Amino acid sequence: MIGLTVRWSLADAPAGVEEELAAYVEGTSHARFSAMAGLRSKIWRCVPGEWFEGCYVFESDAARAAFQESFTAEAADVPGSQIVGAPPVLIEACRVVAVAEGAAGWVSAPRAE
Q1: What span, in angstroms and rounded, lies between the C-alpha atoms of 17 and 8?
Q2: 32-36, 49-53, 97-101: which has the minimum mean pLDDT?
Q3: Could you name the domain of life of the organism this protein comes from (predicted)?
């Protein structure tokens, strides 16, 4: 499987940015990526005050490459960059070695608390 990581630094981001990012994911981004062709999954992760990232898994390298190319071209202007106040510090393709679904099952939710 083919992955992509996009990470923003929150070191110099405004106070409260984590809540603003979570509200954006809940209100807009989750629905957009839930219906995205070629995407198997996306997970949004955050360490408050340190970083915010999207972890993508694509069905093919072609799907990953197409998304990465279009995203990279507009990375400074995407909503995440606008909210954080800076473009991503990392846009990196990777190989997903394995995925396991635990006994508790998978939960798809626009906001995980």
Answers
A1: 11
A2: 97-101
A3: Bacteria
CA-to-CA distance for 84 and 53, rounded, in angstroms?
A: 11
Q: Domains along the chain? A: 2-95 (3.30.70.100)
Q: Which tens digits make up the pLDDT trace of 9-38?
A: 999 999 999 999 999 999 999 999 998 999
Are 39 and 57 a contacting pair, CB within 8 Å? yes
Residue environment code for 21-34, b if the CB has 16+ CB neighbours within 10 A, otherwise e: bbebbeeebbeebe
Distance of CA 50 to the CA centre of its chain: 15
Going by C-beta distance under 8 Å and a sequence separation of 6 or more, which residues neighbour residue 98?
Answer: none
**How far apart, in whole angstroms, are the C-alpha atoms of residue 88 and residue 40?**
22
- Which helix (H) or strand (E) element contains residue 4? strand 2-9
Largest CA distance in the chain: 40
- Answer for the pair 89, 11: CB distance below 8 angstroms, yes or no: no
